[in-house]
Amino acid sequence: QVQLVESGGGLVQAGGSLRLSCAASVRTFGSYTMGWFRQAPGKEREFVASISGNGGGTYYADSVKGRFTIPRDNAKNTIYLQMNTLKPEDTAVYYCAVRFGAQHGNWRLWDYWGQGTQVTVSS
User: Fold this and answer.
1) Under a CB-based contact definition with an 8 Å cutoff, are residues 43 and 27 in contact?
2) pLDDT tens per residue, range 67-78
3) How many helices (H) and strands (E) does the chain have?
4) Where are the beta strands (DSSP E) in the chain?
5) Which of 43, 54, 111, 116 gets the most CB atoms within 10 Å of its CB?
6) Which residues pair with 79 in a beta bridge?
């Protein structure tokens, strides 16, 4: 059983920064692809960023490229989402996920999910 616990969400003004964390209870954490997705009210869940098990490969949605990064600390079984220059359109519930396979942008192909953390960006 895999458990993912996100933290770090909150309210921030446009142009500000937030860092989300996702702690995973899983053996051999460094073997797994990890990712962040988000879902705004009335919209489908969408890919934000992902990182390979060893951290050597990352992918970002075009909408966040250059503003967000997804570092991971395998010693702490944790990934992060560093969000800079936040915009009101970044407002959503952010979910951490693990995939037992290669990185993929389709949220339906991911295996385990956290409970989500709300990020609200005011204009």
Assistant:
1) no
2) 999 999 999 999
3) 0, 12
4) 3-7, 10-13, 18-25, 33-39, 46-51, 58-60, 68-69, 72-73, 78-83, 92-99, 112-113, 117-122
5) 116
6) 22, 72
Supply 3's token pair. Answer: 């458990």
Which amino acid type is present at position 10? G
Return the structure tokens found at 72.
Answer: 């991971």
| Tokens describing residue 46 | 């969408």
Q: Which residues contact 114 (CB under 8 A, 6 or more apart)?
A: 4, 5, 6, 22, 95, 96, 97
Q: How do strand 117-122 and strand 10-13 relate by DSSP bridges?
A: parallel
